[in-house]
Amino acid sequence: MHKSQIFFYLLAAFLVGIFTASVFNVSQVFIYVGLIAAIGCIGVFGYNKNFNARLLLAGFLGIAFLFGVIRFNSANFDKSRLDIFTDVKAGQKEVEFIVDGYIDSEPVNRGSGQQFVVAAKEVIAGDKRVAVKDKIIITTNSFPKLNYGDMISARGALRKPTNIGPSTGSGQDEFDYVTYLKKEGIRTTMFYPEIDPAYDTMQYHKLGRLEKAKISLYRKIFAVKNKFEGSVNRSVSEPNAAFINGILLGTRQNIPGDLKDAFNKTGTTHILAISGYNIMIISWAVLEVLIFFFRRRVAFWLSVFVVVLFTILTGASASVVRASIMGLFLLLARGYGRIYDPKNLIILAGAAMVWFNPLSMVFDIGFQLSFAAVLGLIYLYPYIDSKLKRLPKFGTLKEITLMTISAQLVVAPLLIYYFKNFSFVSLPANVLVAPFLPAAMLLGFLAGLGGMVFLPLGQLFGWFAWAITGYQLSVVKLFSVL
After folding, report:
1. Burial (Cβ within 10 Å: 0-12, 13-18, ≥19) of residue 99
2. Where would you tag: which of 22, 70, 159, 456 has the fewest CB atoms within 10 A of its CB?
């Protein structure tokens, strides 16, 4: 057996261990017995070379499997220091605590309020101060308007999150909000606390160098992002501007409700999200276009630059970073043209991301859709392309269309499973809309960038961006009626 095959099987066993622990409660006794058996298998068959080498491999696979189980359990049952302060009551009244920290996400408007994540550094209970290092998701009023990196002191009751949706008799599934937050490292919530507007901003000096560097970098990123979003709004008319900001920056709050419903009905909502599926299509499409003008290796590095720039522009959230990593691995598998079988590269990317966040494998839908899209592009697309090789290419339109079909066919079962519905117009709507997504993003980006330099230049590119996005929105609205 080749070393690359052994490498693949070991990573696969690790992922199977993560998956098993995600679905079943694996006891410590099972882990100890399994480790003893696996180590014994390696000792026996490693010492005596007359035995089948596959049995020796089985021992290593067993260790890799159990390593995955242990890694998941360590993340899933990890205790937060904030646990002792959550859901605390005195009589029938919730006890309030003061939490000091800084805002660790871009605040999002939620109706009449705003929601953001706070990196808690200290909890004040009476006259005691307890150092913590946890995340809290806070919902508060719209004013005062807060920004990423602001030092904050919030006074309120700390609660454990609860699932959202009907509990019994409705025939609908409740949303597992607890696990959704847990996979992002959040295990505590706080609703409408008292925000101290006079909180000493000099507390900033207590942060470490890495945190200060992170805050400084992200503040600059979000400042550029806000300027870019405003430039798009000035260069392109609505609702096309809101659509462009959605596909470029992931900001969806300005998209009209009826348009969001149309995307839902046609199964094209993924276009509005910065997801692995989007980045898969975009990164591959950019590479295919650049190959016409540059050598493959130069085109590869230019495509990498585009993906990195796109990630930074969107604010580099955890989900976008994960999707971008998948896009970069896909580019590597495709771009150099020397990798005959890219399955090792893909499973290495998956194992690395799952190692850092073991809960993402089963509980992160975006993670699963990203992998499904990659598999469709790597394995199904070449098959469909070979069957339709007589069709004219029309530049890159044929390739992007077939990539869209390949990814859609593979992700469809996951969409049906999770969202309990399937749009029969989803495939034709995506085929008509998605191939023009790279062009819409490119022209939208040029409109925003041009508008930041010279508004008439941005409006010039904005006219072309309006034309393409106008076609896409018209298709979505037409198919939503069907």
Report:
1. buried
2. 456
